[in-house]
Amino acid sequence: MRLANKVAIVTGAGAGMGKAVALRFAREGAQVVVAEIHAAGGKATVEAIRRAKGQAIFVTTDVSQENEVKAMVTTTMEQYSRIDILYNNAAVELHGQDARAHELSAEIWDRTHAINLRSVWLCSKYAIPPMLEQHGGSIIHVASPTGLYGCAPGYTAYSASKGGVVALTRVMAADYARDNIRVNAIVPGTTDTPMIAPLLEDDGIRARLTALAPLGRLGQPDDVSGLAVFLASDESAYCTGGIYMADGGLTAV
To answer: Which among 87, 126, 158, 244 is annotated as catalytic?
Structure first.
């Protein structure tokens, strides 16, 4: 098992890619903290891990709220006494509300950035001190092609927030390299998850998004989990500051 004896926090682990990664981490031997705002989804992930003989706990967490993030990390330390992996996955994409810059409301901008970017910083802020004490750890952020290219016209808040995740990845990697804390980002392509389910209900949109990927299909939640395990494990000991694509070739063309 590649993550044996490691403790992993996965945010937004109640559905989609977060759930897939939490399940994979547990199969690889990690003790998983499922941090999720929706209790039903979070508890279902924990139950699935336990049915497979893995170890996990659920902590209700609004990752945009500092007091809840702090409490989540405190609970993790009380339960497991260490944090080896932080997987910052929680995010929103507010379809029909995100817009071009001059049409975008401050409320939607602030909400998107609170969940997509502020949370990445907050979870890192509180997970890093235990990692410093144990002289190492792996932090993995989930970014997006929209943070690198103008491939999502009209999604101003989302694209800007994910661009911030990329920048945060790089500065944190530089800041904590000498502390043996590695910081990397995964860039998934268009993935068939509940977050974009409203878009994919339109057959025309589904076909267009599918055609954009050279591999000729939408991503599935488990398409990122192998890469996540690699970055979480000691196999990636010399990898930090990296931006790793799992996008079906979307950003290659």
So the answer is: 158
Domain ranges in the chain are 7-246
Tens-digit pLDDT profile for residues 9-25: 999 999 999 999 999 99
Terminus-to-terminus CA distance in the chain, angstroms? 36
d(CA 12, CA 66): 16
Residue 134, both tokens:
């144990």
Amino acid sitting at position 5? N
Answering whether pTM is above 0.85, one says yes
pLDDT tens-digit map of 91-142:
999 999 999 999 999 999 999 999 999 999 999 999 999 999 999 999 999 9
- Residue 116 corresponds to which tokens in the numbers above? 């997509």
How far is the CA of 212 from the CAs of 19, 100, 202, 205, 251, in angstroms?
Answer: 25, 22, 16, 11, 9
What is the SS3 assignment for 55-96?
EEEEEECCCCCHHHHHHHHHHHHHHHCCCCEEEECCCCCCCC
Would you tell me which CATH number, out of the four given (3.40.50.720, 3.40.50.2300, 3.40.190.10, 3.10.150.10), belongs to the domain 7-246?
3.40.50.720
List, for residues 47-73, the tens digit of each pLDDT value: 999 999 999 999 999 999 999 999 999
Cβ burial of 133 (10 Å; 0-12, 13-18, 19+) is: exposed
> Is 158 noted as a catalytic residue in this protein?
yes
* Residue located via tokens 């993995």: 140
